[in-house]
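Hi team,

Below is the intake form for Probable membrane transporter protein from Dubosiella newyorkensis. Please confirm the fields before the structure is written into the shared record.

FORM ID: S-0412
PROTEIN: Probable membrane transporter protein
ORGANISM: Dubosiella newyorkensis
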Amino acid sequence: MNVLYLVLVTFFAGMGAGLGTGFAGMSAAAVITPVLVTFLDFEPYTAVGIALSSDVLASAISAYTYGKNGNLDIKNGIVMMVSVLIFTVVGSYVASLVPAQMMGNFSVLVTLFLGIKFIVKPVMTSKEAIKSESVQKQIVQSILCGVFIGFICGFVGAGGGMMMLLILTMILGYDLKTAVGTSVFIMAFTALTGAASHFWIDGLPPLAPWLLCIFFTLLWAQIAARIANKASPILLNRLTGVVLVILGVVVLGFDFFVK
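The structure came back. Fields below:
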């Protein structure tokens, strides 16, 4: 394999995944998987494993950056993470009983919807709106939303980051920065669990593309997270919307090209 070609492919895969993670809490699997399958002829299962492992550090460093700027709800995030992990397993089991293509492009459609939504109707909720809710109500909401997100993520096989952003902003009333910070915090753990299970089953992937994807995703996620935390709410909504729409269109294009 040509080294320059490998670097270019993994660079653009990591850039798309990192920008999606840092700006919107988007799973790297939504970008890296179709790129590796299309341009490097990876088996989809191996590509997903690489994408999930790239997600771990990118999400963790993004969560740290958002947390350092006061844009992370750890308490409710941990509660939601536990229910997400449990019901991802439940969703995976149910999915094994249902036709595989039933909800194939679900996560991409959610990505496009959120991108357009953030451009047309920005999320301008304040942090005070979250704090005004009672602790008991926040915990119950986090559990129920985690159940829903986990089940959908396990059933569809992707889209956890986008589903979390959708639920956190539109149902739980989080401001966009706190929603993304909380989303990437949860994703760091869910991606670690998913990557470990993939590598346990399939073995370690080829070293060079694996490390390159991790590095480029981490690099661009950090750049995006720093920009996002310094941007005004209205500018962040616009930037996030544009990134999501572009990534959604590109991923749909990859799906069409592969088929």
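SUMMARY LINE: Residues 176-202 form the longest helix (27 residues).

Thanks, M.
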